[in-house]
Amino acid sequence: MIIIKRCLIISLFLCFSPLISFGQTHLDFNEDQFLVDILWDKFTNLSAQDRPSIALVLGGGGARGFAHVGVLEIMESEGVPIDLVVGTSMGSIVGALYCSGMSMANVRKLSENIKWGEISNLNIPSLFTMLVNEDLLSNEDLEKLLNKNIGNLNFSDLKITLICIATDLNTGERILLREGSVAFAARASATIPGVFKPAAYNQRYLVDGGLYENIPVDVARIFNPDIVIAISVAADISKNSTSNVFNSLMQAIYIQGKVFDGENISKSDIVISPSVGDVSATELNRSAEVIRKGFVAGRQSIENVKMVLINKTKGKKLFE
User: Fold this and answer.
1) Angle between helix 287-311 and helix 67-78 axes, rounded to 10 deg
2) Are 37 and 257 a contacting pair, CB within 8 Å?
3) Where are the alpha helices (DSSP H) in the chain?
4) What's the pLDDT band for 243 if we cut at 50, 70, 90?
5) Is the pLDDT score of 128 beyond 70?
6) In the predicted model, is pLDDT for residue 2 greater than 50?
7) How many angstroms separate the Cα of 47 from the Cα of each of 44, 81, 101, 165, 282?
8) Is residue 170 exposed (0-12), middle (13-18) or buried (19+ Cβ within 10 Å)?
9) What is the pTM of this model?
10) Which of 186, 87, 100 shows the shortest CA–CA distance to 143?
11) Average pLDDT, the chain
């Protein structure tokens, strides 16, 4: 492999050397980057059977999860093929939009403009009712918003296979949602316990998948992909505000999942961690900023992603 690599580079360098240098003027030539670019071009033209299978894990984190959008923009622009998406909470929502075939430009536009009033009945009267009558809020509007933007899709209609993770509130079991309504599954996966009414499903009451597993690498591994890429949008718990009931509840969930998140991340092949730890789960108004940070993280990680995928591909396939 090393001999082939050197011969290929030397041959190409000799062919193009007149273009690289002229007189006393020399352009920088990065041998390794040159080779990666050539092999990546070959990789993106391979059939699914000739390349490694790739699973993408999108972790939960409320508003921080919009960083997934920025990372996905980079991956799509660079031609990284995704065969399976496993999402928790906001990861399920972004995953549903992406796997539906919706353009990333439209995913970004929707994400940058989303507000609490569009995905729940959060308002002063409902909060008062919640405090007085202990009547939880509803996030059914989230399901309606998703259906409006992707259509009333079932999982079988998706362009890319998607699995949404939820938690059975009565038993504590992890529930894998991969059939029926995509919008309902994404909503159930993002139903924050103690705030929103659980989503009724086959005599179960489902809440946020992050309660059980916030970065579901284990679920992705069940399907035996060759590569697992995990996007972690974990909170920096030392910077989180706990000034109200909602934030205190989210902080408790983050603390509970911190150890398990670390264990799950270690089982992935590639981890991309946008710098969004200071963003509260509730700060939807910061979505544009969070998407930009995801874009930056994706851009910083893309060469490593390419190298891992190239190295996992049988060499002869890249030189045929």
Assistant:
1) 40
2) no
3) 2-20, 31-43, 67-78, 90-99, 104-113, 116-119, 124-133, 140-150, 182-189, 217-222, 245-265, 287-311, 315-319
4) low
5) no
6) no
7) 8, 10, 19, 29, 41
8) exposed
9) 0.86
10) 186
11) 85
Q: Mean pLDDT over residues 77-88, rounded?
A: 98
How are beta strands 204-208 and 25-26 bridged, if at all? unpaired
How many C-beta atoms surround the C-beta of residue 52 within 10 A? 20
Report the distance separating Cα 69 and Cα 96, nearest Å.
12
Write down the catalytic residue from 111, 120, 208, 301. Answer: 208
Over residues 118-139, mean pLDDT: 63
Please answer whether residues 55 and 223 qualify as being in contact, where contact means their C-beta atoms are separated by less than 8 angstroms. yes
Rounded Cα–Cα distance for residues 75 and 52 (Å): 16
| pLDDT average, residue stretch 25-39 | 74
Q: Which residues contact 248 (CB under 8 A, 6 or more apart)?
A: 242
Which is nearest to 269 in space by CA: 317, 314, 306, 316? Answer: 306
> Is the pLDDT confidence value at 101 over 60?
yes
Contact 250, 74 (CB under 8 A): no
**Cα 74 to the center of its chain, rounded Å:** 12
Residue 208 is among the residues annotated as catalytic for this protein: yes
